[in-house]
Amino acid sequence: MRKLTAKSYLFALSLFGFLLFAVFGANLLIQGAEIKQAISQERESAAKAELQRAVVTVFDKTTRILDDLTQWDEIHQQLGDPTYYVYWREMHVERSERFPAYVHGVELYDKEKKALVSLPYQTFPTTLPTQNSWLLDSKDHKYLMAYAAISSRGEDRGVDGYLALQVDFIEALRQLNRFVYIKPESIMLEGSEKRPFNIKAAMSSLHYQLVKETTSSTFGELLKSSLRDYFILFVLMLGVFYAAIAVLFIKPLVELGKHISQLRKGEREISNDAVGVLPRVAELVAVRDSLNEYQCELDSIRIKLDRQNVELWTLAHQDALTGVKNRLAFDEDWHELVQLAKDKRIEVSLLLLDCDFFKAINDTYGHEVGDRVIQSIAEILEGVLRDGEKLYRLGGDEFVTVLINADRDGAHQVALRCVEAVQQHAFRQLGIKETVKLSVGLAHASGTDIANLSELPRQADVAMYHAKGSTREKIVHYTPSLEQEASALVSNRIVGAVLHALESGEGIMMHYQPLVRASDYQPVYYEALVRMKSGSGIINPSDIFPIISRRRLDVELDKAVLRAVEVDLEKGLFQRGVGVSINVSGAFLVVNGFCELFDGLARFLDDHPIVIEVTETNFISHLQHASECLQKMRKHGFQVALDDFGSGYSSIRYLANMPVDIVKFDISMVHDLNRDRRTRTIIEHTARMIKEAGYKLVAEGIDSEETLESVAVLEPTHLQGYYFGHPQLLEKQSDCI
């Protein structure tokens, strides 16, 4: 590629500046023309809006005149006795001050829309048309013809007749309105008198001229003059700039380039020829001196960088808390092991170790104690492992180690020593009262199945979560049968997705199932049911709640659900008047600041009823505290539903003391209606007592027409089940008007 000199670049830069100014000037002229056009369009739009307001004013004024005249006592008298109608019309109507100058005529019609008296010199029709307004094209005038019904003053409130009005449309436009953009004298109306004449028809038939505007023309001339002056100034400045750069920078840069070439050859001093040139620009002299200093320090910097690279590699592969290897080191070492193990007959065992209930320890004793527990576990495990066996911390409370040339029994013994060493350690010195235990998942690959070596981390993960789910076997060897029992608890992907969703709120997808009125099957509110997204699939409750229960994340899940429902309410997914119900756990009921956690939802109470659903068992387990909290929520406008009534204590005595508004019969009670006569009688009487006590009664589990017919004897106020709708995502709803 050809190299260009600094002068060439300077010339190119100057040419570019010239072209840039030309483009700028042309663009400015184009924008000026666009501004003129925009002003013209804006004036045209303003004129159309002005004309439309004027037309609306004429039609509104005509309507008010008609309304006023239909209440005139003399109108009703003429309809009752039109004997002196002609005299009354000439003396009382045409000379009346009730009519503005633009009203040129009035006519009365009977109930059949026929004129009371047919006058040959009038322009009114003998029979009114079906449309209540039309255009009449007279010789010198364009008339708006309009009529209105005259209501009877008797008890039947029928129609006694009709009143028609003749309005000079153009004259009314000019008298009733003040025009800014339109010349009033230029307004003309073209139209056919056989079609209905309304606001839309009037707008399409009116023609006008705009008031002359001179600002945009003056602006254009001023813009051109300014551009001409700026162009001359720019050319002069460009010439001065070119000469100054050539003298002050181009020549010194040439000499500086020679100096850099000398530095590359190892020479430290500049030639005498350059001394007389470089001082013209002090900054270039400073650059020369800096280059000399940089050349002197470069070697020492390279030495330091090499040493720091070694330190950085160590830090990148070492866990900051425990000092053992980290996940990055494990991934690299494992990849290298998989590559080296190809075509070799060796035995490899992978141990995945996890501290039981570490989150509870962290939450109970604090993060500082939790960090010391992790550090202690790392020290214990490193002491148990043999020389050459590395310990890796994958994150949190998970550790992993790889045993080379260890059979299943040998790997089991190492895992057993790890479990016993941790269990026997004196963690009470840290103030921990509980026994700290490990769960170990062990996966093994021998010389015959070494091809499956890459599967060991996943297999150990499956085995480890089975160990965590067991209260006796804390060391579990992977077998293919464990795959058949796989659930959300043995899937790192699903566990990670659930934990990530609770922490960040991402991936939570609320599904909603309708609860309908028993009278008309119309949705009253939707029950919020949590789902989570993992990759391209959906994590169902059967996978979510075991993880929540095992890790005691009920409070975190309830908080995440509250946030998700609040977002859906903000999106307008619910019609005004339709509410949402939210299930809360027993742990959430006793959390500090329970009421304040609903502040975000309280702002929607005016448009949407919000129901807090508490299961019967959770309610009674925290009866006093729950009653106090929920009573406060009811005072703020929330409703409370007792969910799954019939699945727990089912005590009427308890129910009488609970601050609830709604009782939801559990699906088991709905199904028990057909079990035997005695059960059916008890359930029917219980339902009757609940309704008589003032509670709303919801029958759950309505999944078929037969179930719907069987619960009819309970006379529930509301119904819920697959028969009325499955849980699903909602789309934005439009409010009913």
Helix share bin:
40-55%
The average pLDDT score comes to 82
Q: Based on CA inertia axes, which overall geometry fits?
A: flat
Distance between the amino and carboxyl termini? 72 Å
Main traits of this protein?
single chain, 20 strands, 8-stranded mixed barrel, flat, 737 residues, 5-stranded mixed sheet, alpha/beta
Q: What is this structure, in a nutshell?
A:
This protein has 737 residues and is α/β, with parallel strands linked by helices. α22 (652-656) links the parallel β17 and β18 (662-665).
Walk me through what this model shows.
- By secondary structure, this protein is an alpha/beta fold.
- It is 49% helix and 17% strand.
- The chain has 25 helices and 20 strands.
- The chain has an eight-stranded mixed beta barrel with strand order 12-13-15-16-17-18-19-20, surrounded by four helices.
- β2 (133-137) and β3 (142-151) form a beta hairpin.
- The protein starts with 5 loop residues before the first helix and ends in a 17-residue tail after the last strand.
- 28% of the residues are buried.
